[in-house]
Amino acid sequence: MSVSKSELLNQLSKTYPNISKKDLVKLFNIFIEEIRKALKNDERVELRGWGVFFSKIQKERKSRNPKTGEEIFSPKKKSIYFKMSSKVFKKINEK
């Protein structure tokens, strides 16, 4: 199951009816943009009680196309990771 941005915003507007949906959209966009900027600058984003976003650089390497066996050069790239907090992990795995 996945949650789209619009579904998340609808849930937020139900939870906080005194805040206009327009303001919630603005706030959500600012929140996501700040996380993106921090990750782009190789900073770690920690949301206490929820988790941590961080980036790692994968080294350049030679790899193979599994279909053709052709050797391919993969340039270095930045990957984004998320590690959830132990509180969130416990809530997800409750029975």
Top keywords for this entry?
alpha+beta, 3 helices, 95 residues, three-stranded antiparallel sheet, single chain
Structural class: alpha+beta
Strand content: 25-35%
Number of strands: 5
In round numbers, the mean pLDDT is: 93
Largest sheet: 3 strands, antiparallel
- Element order: H for helix, E for strand: HHEEEEEH
Q: Level of helix content?
A: 40-55%
Figure out the total of helices.
3
Q: What is the terminal-to-terminal distance? A: 18 Å
Give the overall silhouette: elongated
Determine the oligomeric state from the structure. single chain
Largest beta sheet: what is the strand line-up? 1-2-5
In angstroms, what is the radius of gyration? 19 Å
Q: Uncertain regions: pLDDT < 50 for 5+ in a row?
A: none
SSE inventory with pairings:
Blueprint: H1 5-15, H2 21-40, E1 45-47, E2 51-58, E3 61-64, E4 71-74, E5 77-84, H3 86-92
Antiparallel strand pairs: 1-2, 2-5, 3-4
Description:
- This protein is of the alpha+beta class and 95 residues long.
- Helices cover 40% and strands 28% of the residues.
- It has a three-stranded antiparallel sheet with strand order 1-2-5.
- A hairpin with a 6-residue loop joins strand 3 (61-64) and strand 4 (71-74).
- Helix 1 crosses helix 2.
- The two termini are 18 Å apart.
Task: Give a short overview.
The protein has helices at 5-15, 21-40, 86-92; strands spanning 45-47, 51-58, 61-64, 71-74, 77-84.
